């Protein structure tokens, strides 16, 4: 498979462009700062690059690899999980959709955001993940019950991520409404929105399609165990 699109290797593309200030490593391999994200990538499939990637696997949470093609794993890597996903993109939004009252989220909401993400597991979420981009949320009686925001940012693209709703408040359209706002803001900046979904989660993919996202390519998400 020929990989020549920035989104074929979104982690590498983000850490060598707009999010380079969050990168740990060098020209052979990079990973996000440990408090921000799980993701890492080697520059290529060479031995030098994969060995450098192995040296970056220093967190007990391990590392997450997001690749459209086959990339060799670091030497000695132990795979905790591997999942077939799809990468979806949107250059416009479909009309319609429910509107909900929402508010911007920031440092004062960080603990609640982490707690909600820990409960619902929309994806890896750490102490400073909320600083990767703009987040918005729905609060009920002053309590955060749903949120959505931005994560990886290769040149010209921003990932919609962190979408989750407290189990007691599902079925009210919060996720779709917040995603619509986040996506519209990305498009208004002249960028293209993208996201990732598990390939087996057809209901979630169908929801994203109603918003205007389309499947661009299969993606493999691999989580490696951290050091023993």
Helix and strand topology:
Elements: H1 10-15, E1 23-26, E2 29-32, E3 40-42, H2 47-55, E4 63-67, E5 79-90, E6 103-105, H3 110-120, E7 135-140, E8 143-150, E9 157-165, H4 174-188, E10 192-198, H5 202-211, E11 214-224
Parallel strand pairs: 9-10
Antiparallel strand pairs: 1-2, 2-3, 4-11, 5-10, 5-11, 6-7, 7-8, 8-9
GO molecular function: acyltransferase activity, transferring groups other than amino-acyl groups
Domain N-acetyltransferase: 100-228
Keywords: Acyltransferase, Transferase
Task: List the main descriptive attributes of the protein structure presented here.
2 domains, alpha+beta, Aminopeptidase
What spatial form do the alpha-carbon principal axes imply? globular
Strand content is 25-35%
The CA-CA distance between the termini, in Å, is: 34 Å
What is the number of beta strands? Answer: 11
Strand order of the largest sheet: 4-11-5-10-9-8-7-6
For the largest beta-sheet, the strand count, sense and barrel status come to: 8 strands, mixed
The CATH topology label of the largest domain is Aminopeptidase
The total domain count is 2
Order of helices and strands: HEEEHEEEHEEEHEHE
Could you explain how this protein is built, in words?
By secondary structure, the chain is an alpha+beta fold. Helices cover 22% and strands 32% of the residues. The chain is built from five helices and eleven strands; from the N terminus they run αβββαβββαβββαβαβ. The strands form two sheets. An eight-stranded mixed β-sheet has the order 4-11-5-10-9-8-7-6. A three-stranded antiparallel β-sheet has the order 1-2-3. β1 (23-26) and β2 form a beta hairpin. The mean pLDDT is 96. It comes from Brevundimonas basaltis. One of its GO terms (molecular function) is acyltransferase activity, transferring groups other than amino-acyl groups.
